[in-house]
Amino acid sequence: MGSVQTAVHSKNIALIGNPNCGKTTLFNELTGLRQKVGNYPGVTVEKKEGRVIFENGVSASILDLPGTYSLTANSPDEKVATDVLLGRVVHTPAPDLVVCVVDATNLERNLYLVSQIIDRHLPVIVALTMIDLAEELGIEIDVKRLERELGVRVVSIIANKGIGISELKDAMLRTTNATSKPRQWQLPDAVHKETEELVSILRNRHQLADQQAFHDAILLLTSQSDLLDHMDRFDPEVREHVKRDHQKLDFLGFDRQSVFVESRYEWIKLICAASTKQTARSKMGTSDKIDRFVTHRIWGFFIFLGLMTVVFQTIFTWANAPMELIGNGFDWVGQQVTALIPPGDLQDLTVNGAIAGVAAVVTFLPQILFLFLFLGLLEDTGYMSRAAFIMDRLMSKVGLHGKSFIPMLSSFACAIPGIMATRTIENPKDRLVTMLVSPLISCSARLPVYTLLIAAFIPNTNVLGIFSLAGITMVSMYLLGLVAALAMAWLFKKTLLRSAPPIFIMELPPYRLPSLRSVLLQMWERSWLFLKRAGTFILGVSIILWFLASYPRLDNVSAAEQLKHSLAGQAGHLIEPLIKPLGFDWRIGIGLVGSILQREVFVSTMGTIYNIQNADENEGSVSLRQQMQQDRDPATGAPTFTVLTAICLMVYYVLAMQCMSTVAVMRRETNGWKWPLFQIGYMTTLAYSVTFVVYRIGLYIGLGG
Amino acid sequence: MESTIEVQLDTMIPGERGTVSRINTVGSALKQRLLEMGLIRGTLVELVRVAPMGDPIEVRVRGYRLSMRRLEAESVIILKATH
Fold first, then answer.
1. Which residues of B fall within a CB distance of 8 Å from A402?
2. pLDDT-derived band at A6, boundaries 50, 70, 90
3. How many beta carbons lie within 10 A of that of residue A123, not counting itself?
4. B37/A109 CB distance under 8 A
5. Would you tell me how many other CB atoms lie within 10 Å of the CB of residue A602?
6. Closest CA to A610 of A625, A595, A594, A592
7. C-alpha to C-alpha distance for A418 and A226, rounded to whole angstroms
8. Can you name the CATH fold of B3-82?
9. Cβ of residue A504 closer than 8 Å to a chain B Cβ
10. pLDDT, mean of each 10-residue run, chain B (83 residues)
11. Is B43 or A224 the better-scoring residue by pLDDT?
12. Rounded to whole angstroms, how far apart are CA atoms A230 and A225?
């Protein structure tokens, strides 16, 4: 036993498997809550790490690799999985043991990955999941036979019921070596001969280990001849040899790319024939029955729209109460602190800088928790891929994937969960484009700004008898945001983030009951990451903004005077020449500067400027509206705000970033400052130009008076 | 004996079946992905349904379901029995 313990002590185990094979459920079962989430260096792929404790008290580190169909690495997720297996990732040691999770209902395709891992000569255990579901489908698997055929240990488990887990753990303790069986799948003779020859050349020329040489030989033989010249990690003589191989095999009529995959599947077919039995005639599964409605030509849309309405309605209504509670909680803390600390800079900094800043972040938390709860449920049940299936046509018009739809829809609530929801998009460029345009969609924080300006300046006249002009204006703002988002997505896909049309090919997994534990765990992990990363940044920004709005200090003046003479007020004056072409004066300038942190601050800043106490963020109090309507430029007597100013201001708010929490989340999700800065840049440019055009057109048609 | 014809997967209608003859693109990642998902020569494929807006399509292959865009299905050549 002692020798086993030392062999196992600091073991690194990797969990790998096809997407939707039940890998994460098994990971949760093995680790309990002993897990942490991070990122792999340089990429936005999530790194899930945990500890598994064995019965003898020994523990090992276990890594939940991203789901992958093969080790050929078609997407960033798959590349990470492959690189980790081969020990190519910094700070992530190569695994001592690989647990390959295999979905028993989908044996053939899952064994493809197993065969590639066996070829890599890594110690591997197969964890056969969903055997209960396979039985329902009439598939009977002879586990002992499968084990013999594959030459590796196979343990059947039902992860969500904890069945087979202790057996699996036992196998994990005991398995230390790779299978000693020689490679079993066979290539056609001619291909076999060329492959073996190339393997020995690679071994000699490049001093490669057997399995790496074999892998590279396949890579070289399947590649296109004209691409060989770019593969300069192989020396020219090897490449010349490969070119001759290509000619030979092409002449013999082999499809070089297909032959290796076909040979593997040929072997898998034999294994499945030997170890599985189809007992009952497979009847139409439950998933098929559900899909008849869910992806139906007509019902499909209604179900999709209905589901989305329920989700977002629930997020709004459920999140409202806790958000208010959190808001009130921070108000209360603010009052306590006000009572505790004598009036002065320290009190002001603590209450209006620090506490207000933390509150700005934490109030988002309920929305984010609920969003991830629903996203998790949609993902776990298998509906998410149906949503992508239904919406793909629409999104493909702007060059995106069906999976971009949900993040964009989430952004109507708030761009932060929207950006975080892009994690389901595999293609990195598609994901980036979706993140870049999501903040253009009108979120709930813009609503107070729209409401105040519409109530004050848009006459509530009827149009065509049934619509009110106010309502139409509101809808137009939402539409403007949506159109801008789609147009910019199209533009980015055409120019900056141009890529070959992404591969859409996507599995539609069977519908399954979600594992509540996995969903809740993921909800908690992602929300915590948001708090941690966005929180510290926002705290810093809000303290800086507080400083700008409060200094230099003046004695015995009103809050309005203080603000006007503060650094922020001076900034308002300073940018006046810049915003004059948009029809904005310095007072609006202060509003713009003050609401860099978050948009709804515009309303309270206007309140301070016009000396209105308690300007209500939800409606914009009546007196604030009147003040703004009556305000005149002291020099010319012209009104500060006209209908046109209000429209321009709204258009500006539709398109400009004005939300530091979004910037913080972008920085976190893209691992750097490049893209958030680019985003601020393009959105400000877009907002400025569109507002300018609207203002000019407005003046031309006589709206300015 | 039944005779067969070659058609592109995207031209099939829901309910139709056939076996994969070949993937008609060269050296692409798309071909690699299709092959690895099990669409190799001789594999039985059934077109299950078409998405509400006409694209993508859903096929059944090796006991699981796969969706792909019509543009991708164009390169999958199917051997179909004629009636």
1. 56
2. very low
3. 19
4. yes
5. 26
6. A625
7. 42
8. SH3 type barrels. (2.30.30)
9. yes
10. 86 94 83 92 94 92 93 94 78
11. B43
12. 10
